[in-house]
Amino acid sequence: MNAPVQLPDAQVVTRITHFTERLFSFRLTRPRSLRFRSGEFVMIGLPGDNGRPLLRAYSIASPSWDEELEFYSIKVPDGPLTSRLQHIQPGDQVILRPKPVGTLVHGALRPGKRLYLIATGTGIAPFASLLRDPETYERFEDVILTHSCRTPEELTYGERLVAALPEDPLVGAHVRKLRYFPTTTRAQSAQMGRITDWIADGRLAARLGLPDLTPSTDRVMICGSIGLNTDIKEILEARGFKEGANAKPGDYVVEKAFVS
Ligand SMILES: Cc1cc2nc3c(=O)[nH]c(=O)nc-3n(C[C@H](O)[C@H](O)[C@H](O)COP(=O)(O)OP(=O)(O)OC[C@H]3O[C@@H](n4cnc5c(N)ncnc54)[C@H](O)[C@@H]3O)c2cc1C
Predict the structure, then answer these.
(1) pTM higher than 0.70, yes or no?
(2) Cys-Cys with 36: which of 100, 150, 161, 251 at CB 3.0–4.6 Å?
(3) pLDDT tens per residue, range 115-139
(4) Where would I find the FAD-binding FR-type domain in this sequence (predicted)?
């Protein structure tokens, strides 16, 4: 039986999966009143030593229709939150402020033919939500997920996500539209190197058998480190892509996966 909810805004941990010593995912009960758009983030955390909540931004990795909430997290050894969060167990409580926000949402993009989702590390979390949302496949003819990590082990969360999609009752029939392109930057794998280089020199499009990225057909969502985000933005802006926002949809949207 779940522990009684005592903390304000607390939800109960239902499942935890550890992938590497740096990465894990967990699921929480979902407040009945929480509505969000796939791709948004919320503030979650634990009570701090001073009695005040210690909160951090977290993308919701589950789709908006899911009964529970999934999160995919880094473990920073001396990180104020994740040095403790990595030890949560089923039945524990996690604080969740039910105010979802964010720009990695369909409403911030103009209609297009192809959707590119470009993630590094835990930046795949908002895309894990969007890839399980039928609207993603209704809006676009092709969906391309690129995920760059240091080692093949760090790609595991994304690999399992993609492998499970064909069996998904809501999106399984549309998954033929999805192309998955994992890359590693340090350890050897089938595709190595910085995703910025793959995009800038046209190798990504060539490998996928698609035309090079152009704002006339393509829309892009980016979620990585500040450096990665800046580099991809520069490549896109040079090709005429315009940044979108909730109030003014555009050709691409960007969000930080974390603050350095
Ligand atoms: C909009 C937004 C959404 C976010 N979504 C997620 C998410 O879905 N999953 C997640 O794990 N984190 C996410 N983060 C980062 C998260 O808010 C925290 O920074 C992270 O949980 C670490 O918290 P901490 O208190 O342990 O360490 P902090 O003091 O917050 O961070 C310490 C240092 O660790 C590094 N770091 C922090 N987060 C990451 C990360 N995710 N990947 C690599 N290095 C990191 C940075 O160098 C940072 O300076 C998000 C951040 C933003 C701004």
Answers:
(1) yes
(2) 100
(3) 999 999 999 999 999 999 999 999 9
(4) 6-107
Residue nearest to atom 5 of ligand 1 (CA): 58
Please state the atom number of ligand 1 nearest to the C-alpha of residue 59: 8
Residue 252 C-alpha from the chain's centroid: 15
Q: Ligand 1: which atom is nearest the Cα of residue 126?
A: 8
d(CA 82, CA 85): 4
Identify the pLDDT of residue 28.
Answer: 98
Domains defined for the chain, CATH in brackets: 10-101 (2.40.30.10), 106-256 (3.40.50.80)
Number of helices (H), then strands (E), belonging to the chain: the values are 7, 11
**215 CA from centroid of ligand 1 (Å):** 31
Report d(CA 185, CA 151) in Å as an integer: 7
